[in-house]
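Chapter summary example.
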Amino acid sequence: MSLWWKRKEKMYLNTVAKYIRRSPYQAFSAALIMSLTFFSISVFALLTIISVRFISYFESRPQLTIFFKDNASREDIGQVQKQLEDTGKTSLMVYVSKEEALKIYKEQNKNDPILLDLVTADILPASIEVQAKEARYLSDLAGIVKGSELVEEVIFQKDIVDTLISWTNAVRYVGLAVIAILVTVSVMVIITIIGIKITVRREEIEIMKLIGASNWFIRAPFLLEGIFYGFTGAFIGGGLAIGLFYYFSLEAFLRGVAIFPLSPVIMLELLLVEVIIACILGTFASYLAVLRYLK
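The structure predicted for these 295 residues follows.
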């Protein structure tokens, strides 16, 4: 049984190779369209992953920084902390004293001695770094402390997070629209190409039916050809997009944001998923063509 199946499989593959050699331009067109489709899918998928990581990064950072005036005592600041805690909207609060602020400043400017000499702990404000449970709570928390006489300034990243969410949604919607169009075009191209090949070989197919070939025996090479187009397109298009992204890594430009470079494992998983989807898509398109032209 195993030997019979191997011979049958080899015969199918030889038939597919023969079909492709007889019409190389059609095969090239189908593979090219699939490559463009999965190149676009990879680009938008990577952009979505980056956007989600950006949002997660900013949401995990101190989202609300409250700077206090010099006359604010530690007890006064503790009361403000309690007031914020009582809202139930905070997930973490960290008190930064003047001395700790000076240490942070020195660490950030350790390569510039002139700046280090100009700053002392007395001129740096004490502060509280606050993380909200959800980004939508930032405005409420900021509003509570802005009216306090002890507070000098309130800085929060809600605008940054909201902007990132807006961009992520825009990328997602545009990406889905482009991908939907390209997938539709890919399916139509494969259906057309397989349909043309079936029409050209109609006499050959009729002869195969007369000598007892089953419908699946006739259909299998066309289905395998669709799988070939899907696999080739995803491997080339997806591999090219992922390879270019990895090569032109953004790590050099975003050293302060610890999300780059993306793990090679994530990229390989993305490519594997795309290859599987492409093979299913190629099989589906070929099956539609077979149903239409081989009745």
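To summarize the output: The longest strand covers residues 90-96.
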